[in-house]
Amino acid sequence: MLIKLMSSKSSNTLRQYFPFFSNSRLERCVYLDSAATSQKLQTVVDITQQYYQERTVNVHRSSHHLAANVTEQFEQSRKHIQHFIGAKSHKEIIWTKGATESINLVASGLAKSVFKAGDSILISAMEHHANIVPWQQIAQTLNLQLQVMPIDINGVLKLEESLQMITFSTALVAIGHVSNALGNINPIETIIAKAKEVGALTLIDGTQAVSHLTVNVQQLDCDFYVFSGHKMFGPTGIGVLYGKYDLLEQLPPYQLGGEMIKQVSFAHTTFQAPPLKFEAGTPNIVGVLGIGVASEFIQQHRNELLVLENNLYKQLLDTLSVIPQVRLWGDIVNSICVQSFTVQGVSHYDLAVLLDKRNIAVRVGHHCAMPLMQTLGIDGTIRVSLAAYNNSADINSFGQALTECINLLTESATQIKTVATSFDSNQIKRSLTPIAELIKQAKSWDQTYRQLMLAGKSLVRLKDQYKTETSAVHGCESQVWIRCFINEGSIVLEGDSPSKIVRGLLAVVFEALSGKTAHQVLMFNLADYLKTLHLGKHLSQSRGNGLSAVVDKIIEYCQLQSTNSI
Ligand code: PLP
To answer: Confidence class of residue 565 from pLDDT cuts 50, 70 and 90?
Structure first.
């Protein structure tokens, strides 16, 4: 799809349908993370509340009138989704808990019924983990080949080379309609057509596509199409698997029990026909009702959504293009309103932390597409993902905040006014040390982060030879490595990260712990200590705030030392 440059100004006429934006109890948040999950429609909230407050029954089981009504509405949702993606029959729509489960269902079914040794499965280099790992694991188990369609230096699919890879040994081509990490719209029509020529099956991961593009699975002629409700203004925990009916008939059931069973005795069981054959156990009833409502909304407002999104995307590109350090990734012509970028000399983690302090919600890191980042030779990007409920003011706020954050992160050390700190890791520290003191004295978040970044300078950088898998700390959106060892009975800590803020956090933690015995470290309440410095946030379990993984690694080491010394 060519992004047309619309002349009308972006407005926010659709914002009124999303209670998130009118909730006065919320601090105003500029939400630019819709590719992670979209905000929910008021009608989705209403139907959920109504079900739990007034109509809680099970579906497809009881015969009383309440159950019959809700079952009818449940099946009506299936028809809404059928029309939403242009399927031939509502029987081709299977409820799952999300795109991930939909892909796993197909992978497990094909592994049992279709794939044979020597077959190859073709995916692209920009796939979400959910569309890589199920195929990879099955390929390993069944001795199949997993092949990867290549991308260019910007992350755009190399179509000619990809088409050449589709051969008579290709059993399945599994590709995203739209890349979640880059926003690219892939030329799936051409890929599906080539797959048909050689008799290969096709699975399209439409998770990032359905709320932005009109999808017609019959026109596409794909065999499977999957997506999740929560990226299309609907509820979490509900997803769709579309499959051509004859293929669904051939696939064995995925899970067993509940309404997917037709007849059972201790000797033998028969199963329902699709779609119920794949819907074991009590389904996510509110999820199904909610996704139905969301799909109707999108269909009704499709044109308006498209115009708003195109205008917003253009404004976003204009905003990013004027910042010289910004490098855009992905296809900026064939794209939905999602843009990934990096900033020269600035860690994406640091940017995300500072943007968050300005109430700008973006996602940074690998976006569940680690192999894509490896292929592009980067450790992550900053991703702005828009939806039609965003407005011009959101992008203006983002642009201003981004410039401020880049300035803060690139200003030279001499500009940072502070008291010099010296830090000798071999000395036992006082409970309140200079770094901690300075951070406590900071009057604003910007000052806190300035002090942190300065503190990071006192960290002796880990030599490259020590940046190994053993010293790597996983669970943070930034790369982090730490080494712990005991010297003359005291713990010595060394660490590194491309992020200035993470290096500062390491310095704070190391300052508090260095020189203590392993036993003393285990007695020290680091979480409380960081809270007194107002740095507790960085201990959250969220991947973006991975200091807790650092702390866990130190504690694990000290526990081992304590056990060994008993
Ligand atoms: N595929 C793509 C392209 C995605 O963006 C996502 C989620 O981010 C998934 C699959 C997995 O979706 P879910 O977590 O809803 O199962």
So the answer is: low
Closest Cα to residue 248, out of 384, 90, 390?
A: 90
CA of 210 to the centre of ligand 1 (A): 12
CATH class of the domain at 413-565: alpha beta
Q: Tell me, yes or no, if the two domains 99-228 and 413-565 fold the same way.
A: no
Decide: 98 in ligand 1 pocket, CB within 6 A.
yes
Cis peptide bond prior to 275, omega within 30° of 0: yes
Q: Is the confidence at residue 413, as pLDDT, over 80?
A: no
| Fold topology of 15-31+301-409 | Aspartate Aminotransferase, domain 1 (3.90.1150)
From 29, 222, 337, 368, the catalytic residue: 368
For a substitution probing ligand 1, which of 135, 180, 236, 363 has the most ligand atoms within 8 Å of its CB? 180
Q: How far is the CA of 209 from the centre of ligand 1 (A)?
A: 11
- pLDDT for residue 283: 96
Q: Which two tokens stand for residue 13?
A: 């006429």
In terms of Cα–Cα distance, which of 275, 94, 157, 291 is closest to 211?
Answer: 291
Q: Say if residues 514 and 429 touch (Cβ distance below 8 Å).
A: yes
Say yes or no to pLDDT of 416 above 50. Answer: no
Angle between helices 434-441 and 500-513 (to 10 degrees): 130
Q: Is the Cβ atom of 100 under 6 angstroms away from ligand 1? A: yes
| Radius of gyration for the chain, computed over Cα atoms and rounded to the nearest angstrom | 26
Task: Please report the atom of ligand 1 found closest to the CA of residue 100.
Answer: 16
Nearest in space to 406 (alpha carbons), one of 347, 341, 319: 347
Amino acid letter, 119 = D
Give tens-digit pLDDT for 368-396: 999 999 999 999 999 999 999 999 999 99
Cβ atoms of residues 6 and 311 within 8 Å: yes
Contact at 8 Å (CB) between 96 and 240? yes
pLDDT tens per residue, range 260-280: 999 999 999 999 999 999 999
- Fold of the CATH domain 99-228: Aspartate Aminotransferase; domain 2 (3.40.640)
CA distances from 265 to 252, 261, 500 (A): 19, 11, 64
Who's near 54: CB < 8 A, 6+ residues apart? none
CA of 48 to the centre of ligand 1 (A): 22
Residues 442-456: what's their mean pLDDT? 87
pLDDT more than 90, % of the chain: 70
Instruction: Name the token pair of 165.
Output: 């890879």
Confidence of residue 61 (pLDDT cuts 50, 70, 90): confident
Q: Confirm whether 368 is a catalytic residue.
A: yes
Its pTM surpasses 0.85: yes
pLDDT tens digits for range 23-53: 766 668 999 999 999 999 999 999 999 999 9
- pLDDT at res. 250: 96
Orientation angle between helical segments 285-300 and 42-54, nearest 10 degrees: 150
Where are the chain's structural domains?
15-31+301-409, 99-228, 413-565
Residue 366 vs residue 546, higher pLDDT? 366
User: 364 C-alpha to center of ligand 1: Å?
Assistant: 16
